[in-house]
Amino acid sequence: GGGGGVVASAAAAPRAAGSEGHTMQLMRSLRHLAATNWGTRRRFTPAVLQQIESAIRDVESRHAGEIRCAVETSFDLPELWHDISARQRALQVFGHLGVWDTELNAGVLLYVLMADNDVEIVADRGIAARVTDAEWQAVCDEVKERFRAGDFARGAVVGVQRIGDLLARHFPNTGGDRNELPDQPVLL
């Protein structure tokens, strides 16, 4: 296994300064406090989660990497108080889910933070060394665009497929691949 590496973000904006920054932080806190697990489960129903799992299983048959998908509704007060970014949280989830612990260091996490309307990709060092930040960013942007249109199932599946395409290009399945990580998406 190796350490997590590259993160692509569909909502990478510079931190605001001064009173405008406080207003933005307050608005973010209110979004997080107002977000509900019910809203997330309404968008990521058992049928949608099954579609994502099937997509992961299908694309993993073409490459030697591993994909995990995690969807989080919102942060609790301590995370908001410490101004944890979606990027920082994605790195934590990457570690917690063991996405770094693959034989070829080719694990990739697709992380969604509903309250921030944010999509992050964390790639382990084996694949991060071969895929550009712009390629990861394009995947995030496409997923986020579909989410904005209300198509959460297709957005997540397309994200998995695009990640799978990148993994297949750099880590094609040579026949001896085993499934090292669960395919089921996780609702945090």
Strand content: 15-25%
> With helices defined by DSSP (H or I, 4 residues minimum), what is the helix count?
8
- What does the overall shape look like? globular
What are the secondary-structure elements, in order, as H or E?
EHHHEHHEEHHHE
CATH overall fold name: Diaminopimelate Epimerase, Chain A, domain 1
Main sheet attributes: strand count, strand direction, barrel closure: 5 strands, mixed
Determine the structural class based on helices, strands and strand pairing. alpha/beta
| Percent helix range | 40-55%
Observed structural traits:
Diaminopimelate Epimerase, Chain A, domain 1, alpha/beta, 188 residues, five-stranded mixed beta sheet, 8 helices
In short:
The chain has helices at residues 18-34, 37-43, 46-60, 77-81, 86-96, 125-128, 133-148, 152-170; strands spanning 4-9, 66-72, 107-113, 118-124, 186-187. The protein is an alpha/beta fold and 188 residues long.
Describe the overall structure.
The chain is globular and about 55 Å long. Strand 3 and strand 4 form a beta hairpin. It has a single domain, classed as Diaminopimelate Epimerase, Chain A, domain 1 (Roll), CATH 3.10.310.50. It starts with a strand and ends with a strand. Helix 3 packs parallel to helix 8 and helix 7 packs antiparallel against helix 8. A five-stranded mixed β-sheet has the order 1-4-3-2-5, with helices on both faces. It contains eight helices and five strands, in the order E-H-H-H-E-H-H-E-E-H-H-H-E. It is α/β, with parallel strands linked by helices.
